[in-house]
């Protein structure tokens, strides 16, 4: 793993920072999927609250397979 970490951080970006970028993309994509599936909930609670609620839900219940429908 340390050799792998060296390759990852070659561009002066630490492994943890690179994973944070990926995590943000995943959370954003899953939030969009929830927004598409539950548009009325977003209208009822507002976009800002929906985004926060979706993030907490995603972190507590990550998907177990690739199908988001």
Please describe the topology of this protein.
Blueprint lengths: L1 H7 L6 H23 L1 H7 L1 H14 L9
Helix pairs in contact: 2-4, 3-4
Q: Your description of this structure?
A:
There is one protein chain. With 69 residues, this protein is mostly helical. The protein contains four helices and no strands. The chain has helices spanning 2-8, 15-37, 39-45, 47-60. α2 (15-37) packs across α4 (47-60) and α3 packs across α4 (47-60). The protein is elongated, with a radius of gyration of 16 Å.
Key features?
mainly alpha, 74% helix
Helix-strand string: HHHH
Shape: elongated
Give the strand tally: 0
- As a whole number of angstroms, the C-alpha radius of gyration is 16 Å
Quaternary organization: single chain
Strand content: under 5%
Helix content: over 70%
Beginning-to-end CA distance, first to last residue? 35 Å
Q: Name the average pLDDT.
A: 83
Estimated structural class? mainly alpha
- For the report, how would you describe the main beta sheet? none
